[in-house]
Write a structure and sequence with these properties.
Blueprint (H helix, E strand, L loop, with lengths): L2 E5 L6 E7 L9 H11 L8 H4 L4 E3 L3 E2 L2 E2 L4 E6 L32 H8 L5 H7 L4 H17 L3 E9 L2 E2 L6 H8 L11 H17 L5 E8 L15 H10 L4 E6 L2 H4 L4 H4 L3 E3 L11 E3 L7 E2 L2 E2 L4 E7 L10 E3 L6 E3 L10 H24 L4 H17 L1
Antiparallel strand pairs: 1-2, 2-6, 3-6, 4-5, 7-8, 7-9, 9-15, 10-15, 11-12, 13-14, 16-17
The structure holds flavin mononucleotide (FMN).
The site of flavin mononucleotide has 20 residues, from helix 11.
Length: 393
């Protein structure tokens, strides 16, 4: 089974990603891994922290001579900011005078609920782990899942469809997402320049007012065959697993598969995607059964149907405010302003990249469960056999 876990805190020495269950023989592209980490750091509206960090993953195990060897892969990503925090957050007892306590919990953060739960007189240890710095380790893990999927012809990318009130209003092609991901400068990761400028306008407005803004990203899985996930058991449905994977990201408060949100306001004939049959069809397609539109987002009954899988994540506005909301001091119990920590004001593009990683890990897990194989060669053989079978259906 493909499994991963992460460790590390925002201002600790390093982040760790541990991935197990990948077959042997998957080519590991270190340049791609670095680029994925770089993509997560981009976007208009990020804070000062992203100017400090230059994320790079150091692989400690599980990869030799450029390929996976079937054993667990441990990766470490150093926090450059650690040098400024070594005395504030030492592993040893250290000097309590140097501790930077957070005693006015920030609304919208785990600060208060976490301090109550773990019995801390300040929220520092809570926010250190609740921070989305952790998503860096998810991106490192997800990039390995992407390498596995890529070997089977499956790609995962994202783009931004909304920032505040500014929305992408036109349809798009997969190739536009490929071009977007290849860009060397990232503004708001929107495929449409005019919409992207409107999105930038939303961030500029927010920068002027000292507030924050949320938005919506969309992750697209391209080249996935029909038959991934199952209707047979609730916890093996592709839609259910994707929802959990994306919802588990910091600040994501809603997940939509295909046009799920609009579908709830529409009638059936406008929503469901009619099925057609193509007598002649390119060899690259999995099946001759086709759809002219994809409102279902490539999933029906918890099973991929061969169309692009589309998953949207709805992000609340960032919780740390330059003009903080009211809070209560842990020390005095009196009303005060919430603490302020250096912060981003808009993270929709970065959240999209982190969501790509989560989607890739969820899809890779189901792909491995369906096709099995301890080596990439064995997995591919099973994958190709199935491909031939559904092509003849
Ligand atoms: C890529 C990314 C970066 C984030 N950066 C910040 C930040 O700088 N400041 C902040 O207050 N919240 C930030 N967040 C959101 C918080 O981590 C999140 O809202 C908080 O931990 C509470 O968790 P919840 O929103 O999931 O309930 C970020 C989220 C993501 C996905």
């Amino acid at each position: 089974m493909l499994r991963f876990s992460t460790a590390g805190e925002s201002h600790g020495e390093a982040l760790i990603a541990l991935v197990s269950g990948l077959p042997a023989g998957v080519p590991v592209d270190l340049e791609f891994l670095s680029r994925e980490l770089w993509r997560r750091q981009q976007g208009y509206g990020r804070g000062g922290r992203m100017r400090i960090e230059r994320d790079a993953a150091h692989i400690l195990s599980g990869v030799r001579h450029g390929k996976t060897i079937g054993s667990p892969i441990a990766m470490q990503i150093a926090n450059r900011d650690w040098k400024n925090w070594e005395e504030i957050l030492p592993v040893e007892t250290g000097d309590p005078e140097k501790h930077k306590a957070v005693t006015s919990p920030r609304p919208g953060h785990a600060d208060l609920a976490g301090a109550l739960k773990y019995d801390f007189p300040d929220a520092r240890y809570i926010l250190e782990r609740a921070s989305a710095r952790e998503s860096t380790a998810r991106v490192a893990a997800g990039s390995l899942a992407k390498m596995l999927l890529r070997a089977l012809g499956v790609e995962v990318l994202s783009h931004v469809v909304r920032v505040g009130q500014a929305e992408l209003q036109r349809p798009y092609q997969w190739d536009e997402l490929v071009a977007l991901a290849a860009k060397d400068t990232v503004l708001l990761n929107c495929i449409d320049e005019e919409a992207e400028q409107r999105m930038k306008g939303e961030v500029d407005k927010i920068l002027r007012t000292g507030d924050t803004v949320g938005g919506v990203f969309e992750v697209v899985v391209h080249g996935l065959p029909p038959g991934i996930g199952t209707h047979a058991n609730w916890d093996e449905r592709l839609d259910g697993l994707l929802a959990q994977a994306v919802m588990s990201l910091q600040a994501v408060k809603g997940v939509e598969i295909g046009r799920g949100v609009t579908a709830a306001k529409s009638v059936g004939s406008e929503v469901h995607d009619a099925i057609t049959y193509a007598a002649e069809q390119e060899e690259t397609k999995f099946t001759r059964f086709e759809r002219e539109r994809n409102n279902a987002g490539g999933i029906e009954g918890g099973i991929s149907n061969g169309e692009d899988v589309t998953v949207r994540g709805y992000l609340k506005p960032i919780s740390t405010l330059r003009r903080p909301l009211a809070s209560v001091s842990f020390a005095t119990r009196e009303e005060t302003k919430a603490s302020y920590e250096r912060s981003d004001v808009c993270v929709v593009p970065a959240a999209g990249v982190a969501a790509e990683a989560m989607v890739a890990l969820a899809v890779a897990r189901l792909v491995l469960e369906k096709f099995g194989g301890d080596s990439l060669r064995e997995l591919k053989r099973n994958f190709d056999g199935y491909r031939e079978q559904i092509r003849k259906f």
